[in-house]
Amino acid sequence: MAVVKTLYPAGTAEECARCITETMLGKGFSQGREADRYTVETASGTILVLVFEKYFLWQRGNLTLTAVLDTAEGGAVRAHLIIAGANEGTGAEKKLLEWLEKALPAG
Asked: Record's Pfam families (predicted)?
């Protein structure tokens, strides 16, 4: 089951992407991996799509984070986060979401 949340952090999309990347690659007991990063420049601003995998030992499996960062709603950064992959329940997904919420600048 996936955990999905939309946040409106402070800072630029690139600053938020850096916070997400640092959390996914360095937080916890296992190092994550950036699977892909895609950037699109549009008339209404930048859209960044980030995809990460992170192994959770106590779940014995990988979680996948897809983060879509954009400024399409009038300049404020919107971070749409989708976390999925745990075997049972959503405990690992919720823990990862908690880490990301703490890492992103308060908006």
From this structure: DUF6054
Please give the CATH architecture assigned to the domain spanning 3-103.
Answer: 2-Layer Sandwich (3.30)
Q: Over the stretch 46-73, which tens digit does the pLDDT of each residue have? A: 899 999 998 877 667 788 999 999 998 7
Which parts of the chain fold into alpha helices (H)?
13-26, 91-103
Q: How far apart are CA 44 and CA 97, in angstroms?
A: 27
CA 50 – CA 102 distance, rounded (Å): 18
Q: Which residues lie closer than 8 Å to 22 by C-beta, 6 or more apart?
A: 103
Q: What is the pLDDT of residue 59?
A: 65
**Looking at the whole model, is its pTM more than 0.85?**
yes
Average model confidence (pLDDT) across the chain: 89
CA atoms within 13 A on the CB side of 88: 1
For the chain, give percent helix, strand, coil, nearest 5.
30, 45, 25
Element housing 41 (H / E):
strand 33-42
* DSSP assignment letter at 57: G
